[in-house]
Amino acid sequence: MASAIARKRGRNPGVQAMGIEKSPSTLSSAIIAYLRSDGRTLREIADLLEVSESYVSRVARGERQLSVPHLEQLERLEGNSLPLILLEAERERTPRKHLRAIDDLMNLMRRSHELEKELRHGDEQDDAGIQIEDMVIAGEQVRLIKLPENEATKNGLTPRILREFSAAALQAPDSILVWTAAEGRVFCSGLDKNELLHALRKHDTPAPLLGALVTLYNVLAFHPSPTVCILRGAARGGGVGLACIADVVVASRAASLELPDDPAYRALAKILIPILEWRRFLSGVLKLNWFGKKFSATAAKHAGLVEKISSVADFETMLEAAFEILRGRSSSPKQKRQRATGTLRLPVSALKKMNESYYAALEPKPTALLRADLEEWAIAKAG
Fold first, then answer.
1. 4 three-class SS
2. Where are the alpha helices (DSSP H) in 222-253?
3. Mean pLDDT of all residues in the chain?
4. How far apart are the C-alpha atoms of 342 and 346, rounded to whole Å?
5. Minimal CA–CA distance to 103: which of 84, 78, 80?
6. What CATH fold (topology level) applies to the domain 124-382?
7. CA quadruple 56, 62, 68, 74: dihedral positive or negative?
8. Phi, psi of 124 (to 5 degrees)
């Protein structure tokens, strides 16, 4: 497993995707460097984060890490999301030819973050958040992220879940990320319909949730260490991206993948295509046979969207199977060279296509179709 991690950590694909040379710093030290670039002293940063100056100094040297509460406080005080803060910090080192793609992504994040702040409402306090568990497996640090179980929303993604998921991944750059949901019929149905309808009624746009989802995809795709999804139920819409964006996907026989062909959701689902085709080396394949079809676990494996099918839905068994795949990959000199030379980085062209799909989904016609469908759904649900 150590070589598997080294293979992915060796070059940060998220940073390279933007044409940035990665410095030998950690995520936390990069945040401190960004704050200092605004002219702040270590003492001022320490006061901002409510820690000692010596702690900030050790973070700056890469000897300590900021915690999730530190990151959440920074987001609150700076008024920006953490991914946006990091992009802004690295922009000066980005080659001129890639600046437009980076600026497009930053604008997407800004718009999403501003609208999401307006969108938050009182009943979010009752929403269930993710569960995080840090452990050591075979001598390697592992961070397990569990989606909350919600039968009513079919494990839909709320603003809180998207925000917490991104923060949990960003906080553990040196850990293998593993995510899953409770064993059952549904893994994740994508964006929560109640939250989407609330966004449309209040802002007439799905941007708050959609932007947060795209941000999460970027965070997971660019994670410096290996990523694993244990898929034990149905993934639909945005849940498909959450499953298949992992380096390794191990599915139970009951698992399935589906992107709806309904006109109301097609514009949203198209955002997944560029990033999944890049992530899975499936250029042009998904566009031909994806929409409106439900892939069984077997069909998904044949399509290259799943690495292994487990005959049992036991989490520990499936996780061990994922680790076996990572160990096998680490033994391939060709794959190690591919990772080292950045073959798996997200091309600027794919980033551009994803951004274009995002803005297309916000056009008046797709937005009207989505709202009409959700209003009809809400009436049927109330009845």
1. helix
2. 238-244
3. 76
4. 9
5. 84
6. 2-enoyl-CoA Hydratase; Chain A, domain 1 (3.90.226)
7. positive
8. -65, -25
Matching CATH topology for 21-93 and 124-382?
no
Instruction: Return d(Cα 153, Cα 193) in angstroms, integer.
Output: 8
Six-digit token pair at 145?
A: 């992220």
Domain residue spans of the chain: 21-93, 124-382
Closest by CA position to 47, among listed 58, 36, 56: 56
Token code pair at residue 335: 């794959």
Give CA separation, 25 vs 29, 65, 87, 170, 382, in Å: 6, 11, 15, 14, 53
Indicate the residue type of 326: L
Polymer length in residues for the chain: 383
Tokens, residue 28: 């936390």
pLDDT above 70 for 210: yes
Considering the domain delimited by 21-93, tell me its CATH architecture. Answer: Orthogonal Bundle (1.10)
Q: Is 187 helix (H, G, I), strand (E, B) or coil?
A: strand
**Ranges 32-36, 146-150, 202-206, 281-285: which has the least confidence:** 281-285
Distance CA 87, CA 75 (A): 14
Sorted by sequence, the CB contacts under 8 Å of residue 130 that are 6+ apart come out as 145, 146, 147, 148, 161, 164, 165, 168
